[in-house]
């Protein structure tokens, strides 16, 4: 029997090349971010026939009588298995959850609660979770292209696999190096992909793969139930990336659906666009295998960023605010900019040209962004994947809900630097 409280945690990601084309089985390159989601499972009251959710980042607090959940749809055997990559959501569970959640009218809250319940009922029995409170806090912006949905999904999948007894406590410390994926990570990743399917119908799997395994990868979704190819890129060259959040809201589900419409209605031109994206990701991969980039390779990588953005624009997933981010960095000749993630708003990345971008120019750019209400981040790439913290004495759900910002959250959970964090 697992003892609570415990925390699970998983990183967000930045897609450097290949968003959207990744859905269509083309290779893409992404890296884990130092921004992360944390999920606390705790027993905060004596009420054992109720399940409590606290998701303050999306202003959502909810509870269910545990007996109202459709536990009967699964048995021990179905809870232990690893779903294949092409498994569809279980229609009976989807129906049962739709009726249970019918009173929630915010799309953001609905999809978070749906993903939570889908994974919970798929992986746990009633006795494993009765009376528990689940609290989510994230230092990632929600719905901005940095993979918050996947990091939440990995936190749920790992916590429920652990509570359901399908995985054991991890043993790896933050600086332990491994060469082989653990069985436990593969199980978490497979269920987190089901969580991403709850969030948007047709995920490539790149976001949950990075959130589970951490680091940087070249990722390619395969046809049917064949597992995706995930090639880890251990020695990513140092890249000076500026991340800018336009704060323009958008939903991955809607953008992926729009691209699907273009792919269906214009198969020839969209096929060529996707093939070109593949060529870009493959060349970028070859360049990024080098631990250091010479001037020529760096210039080429910047050109590839420019080309990739242009193709995403042609698929209709940019936004005037993303174009502003690009225009202003182009005007100051600071580097090359592309949208990242699903687009339609959210974040852009600028690969800074270290020779051209003086501190004055960078400051000018940041001021321009700030005036427009955009937020810039500096974060490190390639951090740890899914982790667990069990020795919790000071963190309660109430405390976690009251924290105001990224610094306070990281201080409370010890970020991933706390030596007690272990990784699967
Ligand atoms: N901190 C959080 N708390 C609860 N739900 C979250 C949180 N962060 C993300 N989510 C869920 O993920 C969804 C955002 O996913 P998505 O549109 O794919 O954007 P992205 O993954 O780029 O951030 C939200 O609508 C919400 O359902
Ligand atoms: C557009 C896509 O390539 C990435 C979506 O990422 P995000 O949810 O916007 O962080 C979709 C996918 O690969 O599943
Ligand atoms: Mg997402």
Automatic annotation (TrEMBL):
Subcellular location: Cytoplasm
This protein's UniProt keywords: ATP-binding, Cytoplasm, Kinase, Lipid biosynthesis, Lipid metabolism, Magnesium, Nucleotide-binding, Steroid biosynthesis, Steroid metabolism, Sterol biosynthesis, Sterol metabolism, Transferase
Keyword Lipoprotein: no
Entry's Gene Ontology molecular function annotations: ATP binding; mevalonate kinase activity
E.C. numbers: 2.7.1.36
Chain's role: Mevalonate kinase; part of the second module of ergosterol biosynthesis pathway that includes the middle steps of the pathway. The second module is carried out in the vacuole and involves the formation of farnesyl diphosphate, which is also an important intermediate in the biosynthesis of ubiquinone, dolichol, heme and prenylated proteins.
Protein name in the entry: Mevalonate kinase
Species of provenance: Pichia angusta
């Amino acid at each position: 029997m697992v003892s609570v409280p415990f925390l699970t945690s998983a990183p967000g990601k930045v897609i450097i090349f290949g968003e959207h084309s990744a859905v269509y089985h083309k290779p893409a390159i992404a890296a884990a971010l130092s921004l992360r989601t944390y999920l606390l499972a705790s027993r905060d009251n004596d009420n054992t026939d109720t399940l409590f959710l606290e998701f303050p980042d999306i202003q959502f607090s909810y509870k269910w009588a545990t007996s109202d959940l459709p536990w009967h749809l699964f048995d021990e055997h179905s809870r232990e298995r690893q779903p294949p990559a092409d498994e569809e959501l279980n229609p009976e569970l989807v129906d049962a959850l739709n009726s249970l959640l019918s009173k929630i009218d915010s799309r953001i809250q609905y999809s978070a609660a749906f993903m939570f319940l889908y994974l919970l009922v798929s992986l746990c029995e009633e006795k494993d979770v009765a009376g528990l409170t689940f609290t989510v806090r994230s230092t990632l912006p929600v719905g901005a292209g940095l993979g918050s949905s996947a990091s939440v999904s990995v936190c749920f999948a790992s916590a429920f696999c652990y509570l359901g007894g399908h995985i054991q406590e991890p043993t790896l410390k933050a600086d332990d190096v491994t060469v082989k994926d653990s069985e436990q990570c593969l199980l978490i990743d497979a269920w987190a992909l089901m969580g991403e399917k709850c969030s948007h119908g047709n995920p490539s799997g790149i976001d949950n793969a990075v959130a589970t395994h951490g680091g940087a990868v070249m990722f390619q979704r395969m046809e049917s139930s064949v597992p995706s190819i995930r090639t880890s890129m251990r020695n990513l060259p140092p890249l000076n990336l500026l991340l800018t959040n336009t704060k323009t809201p958008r939903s991955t589900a809607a953008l992926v659906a729009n691209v699907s419409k273009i792919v269906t209605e214009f198969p020839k031109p969209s096929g060529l666009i996707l093939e070109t994206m593949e060529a870009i990701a493959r060349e970028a991969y070859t360049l990024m295998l080098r631990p250091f980039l010479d001037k020529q390779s760096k210039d080429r990588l910047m050109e590839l960023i420019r080309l990739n953005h242009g193709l995403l624009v042609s698929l209709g997933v940019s936004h005037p605010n993303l174009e502003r981010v690009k225009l202003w960095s182009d005007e100051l000749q600071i580097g090359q900019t592309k949208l990242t993630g699903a687009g339609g708003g959210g974040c852009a990345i600028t690969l800074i040209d270290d020779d051209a971008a003086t501190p004055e120019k960078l400051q000018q750019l940041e001021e321009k962004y700030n005036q427009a209400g955009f937020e810039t981040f500096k974060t490190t790439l390639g951090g740890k994947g899914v982790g667990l913290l069990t020795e919790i004495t000071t963190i309660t759900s109430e405390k976690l809900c009251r924290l105001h910002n990224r610094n306070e959250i990281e201080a409370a959970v010890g970020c991933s630097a706390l030596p007690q964090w272990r990784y699967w």
